[in-house]
Each structure stands twice: as C-alpha cells, then as structure tokens.
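User: Show me an example of a complex going from sequences to structure tokens.

Assistant: Sure. Here are the input components:
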Amino acid sequence: MLKKLLDRTHRGRTVSYIMVVVLYLIIEIMIHSGNLSSLFTSLLVPVCCYIVAAIGLNLNVGVSGELNLGQAGFMSVGAFTAVSISGYLAASVSNGPVRLIIAIIAGVMISAVFGLLIGIPVLKLEGDYLAIVTLAFGQIIKSIITNMYLGFDGNGFQFSFVDNNTKLAPGGKMLLNGPMGATGTAKISTFTAGVILILVSLIIVYHLMYSRSGRAIMAARDNRIAAESVGIDISRTKMLAFVVSASLAGAAGALYGLNYSTLVPAKFDFNTSILILVYVVLGGLGNMTGTIIATIILVLLPELLRSMQDYRMLIYAVVLILIMLLTNNENMKTRLRRLKNRFSGRGRKEGEVS
Amino acid sequence: MRKKSLLKTGLSLAMVLCMTVALTACGGAASAPAESAAESGEAGSASAGGAIKIGGSGPLTGPAAVYGNAVKAAAEMAVEEVNAKGGLQFELDFEDDTHDAEKAVSAYGALKDWGMQVSLATVTSAPGAAVSQMYQDDHIFAITPSGSSLAVIYQDPDNAASPYGNIFQMCFTDPNQGIASADYLAGHSDLGSKIAIIYKNDDNYSSGIYTKFRAEADEKGLEVVYEGTFDDSNASDFSVQLKKAKDAGADLIFLPIYYDPASLILTQANQMDYKPTFFGVDGMDGILTLEGFDTSLAEGVYLLTPFSADATDELTQNFTKNYKARNQDEIPNQFAADAYDCVFAIAQACEAAGVTADMSASDICDALTKQFTSMTFNGLTGQNVTWSESGEVSKSPKAVVIKDGVYVGVEE
Amino acid sequence: MEFFSYLINGLGLGSVYAIIALGYTMVYGIAKMLNFAHGDVIMVGAYVVFFALSSFNLPLIPGVLLSVAVCTVLGITIERLAYKPLRQASSLSVLITAIGVSYFLQNAAQLLWSSSTKVFPAVFPSGSLELGSLSISYLTLITIATCVLVMVCLTLFINRTKTGRAMRACSEDKGASTLMGINVNRIISITFAIGSGLAAIASVLLCAAYPSVYPTLGAMPGIKAFTAAVFGGIGSIPGAFLGGLLLGVIEIFAKAYISTQLSDAIVFAVLIIVLLIKPSGLLGRRIREKV
C-alpha cells in the first residue's frame, strides 16, 4: 500500500493530500493554542473556497486545455443556491453542519446543470472564442442574478424577475433581493468543512485525471486530431471535465456564500474569474499541489502587504508580474536550474538532474 | 525529467515561501501584545493614559476608492485635531476593504489584531452589512460615516425590532432619503409633475433609495412616467435613458445616485438639449467640486444634502481649508464631512463618559452606546443631531438648489 | 425616426469600441496574445490629454499628439519589460502578466493622480446637425468620422507599406518571416506602438462623449472592445471595425427596446449566438488544423 502511494504515478497525489492534511493540523493547533491572529482566522474559509474553485478550473484549463473566463459565474450559481436553501431551511433544519451539507449539495447540483447547459454551446468552439463565450456566460449569469427576486412567507415562494413584485406577508423573508443579493445569512461555513471539500475535490480530480476518461481528456488536449483518430469521443470527455469543473466552482461558491452574512451578485464578476485563473496559471497547469500553494500565497499576499498602505496593490501587481517573468522566462529558468544544481546536484550524476 | 526537476524547484520555493508566511503569521500574532504594549508605553509618555484606538475600513483602491480615501483623509485630520487639543488622545488605523465583503471581514481581523477599541465601521454599505454582526459579537462600538443601508444597523433590514444596538450611522438611511424625496416632490408640484427616475440597479445605496421612493411616490399619487437603470458595466452612456425620459414627457428627473455618474447625465442631457429639473439626494453632493466640471450644467439642480463645502459657517470653512491643504487641493465631499463628524462625535462621547485608553473595547462600547443614545451633537453635517436606540441618526434631509454655482437653501 | 436616432447613437458608441478593438486585434494578430492592459493604456491616454488641456492649456491637436506619444512610449515599454521576456512562454502566462500590468497601471494612476473623478473638458463643438426631425450631435459625427479615417489609414498602412507587409507576414508565420529577413521583435514593437497610439485617440473620443476621467476608466470599455474584437473575428482589422460598431448598436438597441437592466446580458447573448453560427467571428478566418 505504502509502496503504491509512493510510486511514480501516485507520488503527486500523495504529496497534495499530505500537504493539505498537515497544513490543516498545523492551523488547527494554532487556532486552539490561540496563536492564529484574527486576520488569518478570517481568511481560512475564503482560502479554502478559492482553492476548490481553482482546482476545478485547473481541471478545465490545465487538464482539458480550455481557457475558461467564467468560473466566477458558476461560483455565483452555487453560492446563491446554497444561500437561498440555507435561508429557507433555517427554521426547519437547525443543525448547522447538516444544513451546510444540504446547501453545498444543492449548490453543486444546480451548478452542474448550468455547466451542462452552458457546456453544450461552449465546447463547440475553440481557443480564444471559447474563452470569450465563457466570459459572456459569466456576465449573463451575473446580470440575471442581479435581477432575481425570491422570497417566501407562510403562503409559499414568490419570485419575480427584473421588476420586484414580491409582496411578502409579515414574517416572510427575502432570500434573493436583486442587486442587494442575500442578507442576514447565518454563517455556517467552517474551516474543517473547507478542508474536507478540498480533499474531496482532490480525490475527484485525481481520480478523473488518472482514469481512462482523464487520459482521453489529456490526449484530446495534446492532439485533438490524433485523439479523434483513435476513437476518443472528444466532446464527451471535454464535457465531463467542464461539468466537474463547474460543480467544484458551485461547491466553492456555496461554502463562500455561507461564510458571510451578506453576499452581492456583483462579487462574482469578471475580476473574480480572472483572479482564480491567476491562481491556476501560477500554480502550474495540471498541477493541483501547485494550485493550492499559489492560491494560499496569492490570497495572503495582499493581506500581508496591509502595512504598505497605499502601495499595497501596486506591490501586489509588481510581484505578480515578477513571478510570471521569473517562472516562465527561459533565461531565468536556466539560471534557477543552475542554482539548484549547485546546491543539490553535487552528489548526483549529470544525467539525472538535467 | 527536466520538467519534473523544474517543478520541484518551483514547489520547494513555494513551500519555503509558504512556511515563511506561516511563521510571520505566527510570529505576528505572538509579538502583537508586546508591540502594542510598547506603543501605548510611548503614547503614555506623551499624554496620560495612552491613545484610544479607532479602527475603520473602506475602499482605498479599486473603482470605489474615491469614497474610502475621502473618509480616511478626513478621519486622519479629525484625529490630529482632537489630539492637538491635549486631553483625549486617539490613534487611527484605516484599512482597505476594496468595497468587498470578504476584504472587509479580513480588514476587521487586521483591526482586531491591532487592538481596535472603537470603530468607524465601513464606508460602503454591502461590506458594512457583512461586518456588523462581528462588531456585535465582539461588542465593539462602531459608527459608520456613510454606510447608509438599513442592513448595516439591523440584523434583518425588514424587521425594525432587530437592531444590532452598537452600530450607529452618521448619514441618513437610504429609505429615509427616498421617502423624504418623494414627500418633498409631492409638496412642490411646481418643480415638475411628470417624474422620471434613473438609478444604478447594482448598487445598494441607489436601489435602496429608489425602492422606498417608488413606494412613497405611489402612495402620494406622484406620476412616474419612466424608470431607467444602469450598472457598473454601463455607467457612461445615458443617451437611451435620457431620450426615453424626454419622449415620455418627463419634466423632472430623480437621480438617487452619486455625483460622478450624475455629472455625465447632466452633460448628456445638455448635449441633447433636454432641460428638465434634476432632483438628487445626498450622493449628488460633490458635483460642484468635481475637477473640471462646468458648474453651469448643474444650475437649478435640487438636492437633499447635509453638507456643503462652501457653506459660510466657521466650522465648515476651517474644515474645507484644512482638508484642501492636506490633500492636494481636493475639495471635501459629504463622505469626508461625515467621517470628520464621526470622529468628533466619538470624542465628545468619550469625554462625557470618561472613557480612557486602558478600558476594554467592551466597556467602551457600553459607555459610548449609552452616550450616543442620549447626547446631542453639533457638527459639519447638522446641528442638534441625536441618535435613536437602533443607531439611526435624526438629521433630516434638507433641500437645497444650485444657483450661480452655490447651494441655496430652499424655503419650506 | 426614433429608430434612426438610436442607430446613430449606437454607431457613435460603437465607433469608440471599434478603435479600442483595433488595438486588441492588431496585437492579437501579430503577437498572438490578449493584451488585457490595453484598456488601461486608454486610461493613461485620457489623463495625459486631461492634464495637457486643463493644466497646460494646450490646444486639442497638440494635446492629442502628446497623448499619442506618451501612449506609444508606454506601449513599447510594457512590451519590452513585461511581454518580450515571455515570447517563448505559453499564451496563458502572457495573459496573466498582462493582467498584472493592468493592475499596476490602475494603481499607479490612483497614487499619482488620486482616485477622484476629473471631468474631461469639452473639446468638440456642442450642438447638433438637424436633418428633418432627426438630430445628430456633432460629437457623434466626429467620432464616427474619426473611426472611419483611422480604419482607412490602418488598412492602407497594412496593405501598402513595407512595414505593413512585414506585419502581415509575421501574423502568418513568424519562423518563415525571420528567415525572410524580417526582424520579428521590431515588428511586434511597432504593433504595440500603433495599438497604443490608437488607444490615445480612442481615449479622446471616449472622454469627449463620456467626460469622466478616473483610474479604472479603461477596464469596462476594454472588456467591451475585446468582446467586439472577438465578435468580428479576432486578428481581423475590418472585423474589429464591424464588431465594434455592431456591439455599440446592439447595446443601445437592447437598452432602448428591451430593458436597461438586462442590456449587458442581451449583448453577450447575441455574441454567443453569432459565435455558434460563425465559430471564428464574423470576418475571422477559419484556421484549418493540420495533422
């Protein structure tokens, strides 16, 4: 068993699982010994959400090779579904964790449906045209949720679109209030739930990557024509990756939405999609461990720069550009490699390191 | 093989970074008490008892940065003025929340780590609603200069019996302004009888005012002939909305929006030779001081405002002069004025209650809540201002009209 | 009549999108990258014109020329510092770098010029041309005319000059162009220079129509123009022109005849439908994949 976990194909996965669990334990110990500052405590859940969304996006962008600029749209669907369900069930299911699970499952299912519906037209396209259509769907979702009004009272649900015609009886509650989104949400997301969600998404994504479908997806990414010629059903495999990616974004959104007492539709705009894409590209396409690390670093970075005051976001931008240049420029790569060889490559044979 | 070793380099680098981050986080938390002790020690030598720590957050970067920066600049100025008087001493930490609930919550964390005792809450409403619950849970007194939505001070905005109790507002609430505007128009039908409304539908403030205005207008029998919206992605072209309003015969346009898009609406209406009466709310304040704006376009615009940078009283004149001197000649808007008042209201309450810097945030919260619900405050944005138990301010919106480039009070 | 009035407004708005889209599409055609910082170059251009006109009291034409010069230099600098080192990297890495550059420009502008809105001075004569019951503002006419002029000049440049031909060669095949003695790096720099210069012109038209100057000014027009470029077929110059105009007209019509709340959703829905019918945009070339 141990040998299997450490062999070539499994090593990457084992490293991610161990890393997540170890980080979780360290942080839990810090929380319980009172060593974690309020600032970092407040970042735990959102970091988990972004990691899950980024893992999903990496499946789409890294593994399947489709540039998706609308991941925030799926997060939005998951978040508002979960927040509405949780608001509706608040009276009948008082147990927080149970309600959280129900809400996340609902969020995942609805975003999977959206993923499927949007995937049909999107996957007919290629390259940058595909990217712009995902961007378009992201904007459409934002626009639609901004105009949705959903409330319930003793007589049942009331829904209206664009013009708010809901007239709730006393004691009724607005679940979605158009541009103002959802307010008064009970905060039931927890760090532990976030970590479990990360582990579950890692299991799903790795399972998919190393299964028959996963190899088919990667074959289609690397050479579409060759893959087609050996009989791989490309649209089916790509659709699978797209829907799983959307579902993970939905789960991330659900967890996110239930972590704040208010949530506005404008939160999940183009910038949020781009932010998640940055985590993925920086972490490395197809590299889930890298995605996790990149997300943690990039969420923490602006918070750690708070003491820089006005220069905070400027420095963030410079760091972002520098990281991209350092990790992608051929000259830099060679230099880094030489540096590494000097430190660690002495005992090894030349052939092994290069 | 080559790829793999590269990946490993990247990973190990990232791991090192991660550890450093974790360590600093850890170290930061551990050394925080020591640091703050040193700080209060220093301040203690300057004045007895040290300084009371005031926190606050607002958008200092991003599209809404103008509001956050105005609040920050005015609050810093007010804190310096309070400190210069001797006696009560304040220390301010104003964090960036980029007008986002998530960032507001982490800003709140940063403020708590710093040891915040009193707060200016948040500048904007949506992030404010996200942190209000945390202020209540931690029992820290907060007064927001400009978070005007009901969701900032009520747990459930539709339920008047659910105030947080320790969150106060310095600005009018959104519904309050909507109702006041509709009532004013109902009482002054000479301004215009066919009303068009243009509002920003993805903005809490604007749609909050619109909703109540519309309800009150229907009740008072006002005739609304056109309603148009815009949002963040369409905030520059108003040709369609204006043409529709014109074709519907509107002779008055109600603009429950901020002054920057309003300036575009005034310019574009002028270009198409459409001259209805424009009626704005407190967000319209600032239009005369927009750098480069042709103020003749704003001639005859009505607005409800608590503050005007060119008022002639001594307090306002000093405030405007000092603010300009500190901020590259920028003219203060109502956000700045409200923030300035917040700090002075806190100072007044602290003095009256005998609050000192060594008291816990929770004790200060009890003392200040008691003071705020019983005291009267005179500031830039109003005289004889009082607060209700639920945290709402009593200031009543006052209508002014722009004549020859200045605000002129309208006789009731 | 109402219809024509909306149409003209739409063409005016579309002309601005079209000029911005030209910048996107040229850079894409030659460097094969999405330059998300293009919108922010427009913002810088707008500030330069604003200060030239209001602080230094320059007349319009020298002000615009100054802005074009500043933007051109800025475009070349960005290309040299941020994009050139990534010539061999994946297009996604370049995309992220471009986003970094965009953040940088926005935040630098806020630190330099403060976050408060400045109102762009009126640079074109106000008033309008009356054609029967139809009135068209001079501003709209000037905007459309400038857009057509830019489009014609650019087409002539690309088709008739040596540099233009070199640009077309680079967009076809960089390797072969190098073998033919074309300095590909120089051509890419020139492309960025032209794209950024166009951004300066776009900034004047944009701000003349919507006179607000602020640090995030370029973000939304940038996204819209990018959409327009894809609409017309990214990489195609007439495509960007057509895409921009159509996008402007659809946006205005959606607001006028359907709903102001949903205008964005409608614009993007039309885009999706067009791309489903013509998967590489209206005038884009379908590139056949070879084994």
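The lines above are the inputs; the final block is the predicted structure for all three components together. Chain A touches chain C through 47 residues (CB under 8 Å).
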